[in-house]
Structures are given as C-alpha cells and as structure tokens.
Design goal:
Layout: H1 2-7, H2 12-17, E1 19-25, E2 28-34, H3 48-64, E3 68-79, E4 87-97, E5 101-109, E6 115-129
Antiparallel strand pairs: 1-2, 2-4, 3-6, 4-5, 5-6
Length: 135
Amino acid sequence: MRAIKEFFKNDRFAEHCGIELVEVGEGRAKTRMKIEDRHLNGINVVHGGAIFSLADLAFAAASNSHGTVAVAINASIWYVKAGLSGTLFANAREVSLNPKLATYSIEVTDDAGEIIAVFEGMVYRKKQTISPDAA
C-alpha cells in the first residue's frame, strides 16, 4: 500500500487544494482537508467543488489500491450539511469489485463525525498496473 500512497503524492490538483491522503488499504482510503479561506464559497461555507475533490481523492486511492489502474466512469455526490470550519475527512470503502468494474461509497465528515456529504463512484479497471516506479 505504500507504493499506492507514494503514487498519489503526484496528484498535483489535490496538493493545490490542500488535500492529504492519510491512509490507504485494500479497497479503502482516507483523506483530509483542513478548511481554509480558499475553500469557502460566496456565502462562506465550504465550496461543493472542494468537498467533491476531497471525496474524489479517497475514491481514486481506494479504487487503485489493488495495484490495477482504475479510472472513474461515474461519480455522484449528495451534500447533506454545510462544512464551515475545522477539518473535513473522506472515508472510502469498496462496495463491489470484479475484473472490469468496481464501486465505492465515500462519506465526507467533519471534526465532530457528522456527515457533510455522501459520494458514490464506479471505476473501470484497466489491464495496466501501477508500478512503484510510477510514483
């Protein structure tokens, strides 16, 4: 799993957004984002795009954790509570896995463990593998 975590250090967009990959295991991943002024929208709550990006990195890490390149073919998100301050976390878990497709559920929570958003995604699993040298 270390190779996968190292591989995702090259995600320049996540780095730009201040999103960190905290842990990754087979079919699961956790990310975090400390809310900063740059994450807020015009009404001073966390921008939906920032929340989506946080969940998306967890989705990417979990779906690629088997060492097989997985690319998103569908993703949807439901925002259930505004993020205001502190730190947001995204926890991804594998729901189903087969040789070509896999699905994931990601919960975005705040410091108090309250659900901010629910993200679901499906990936296409390519034949290509992620090598430690690609990191």
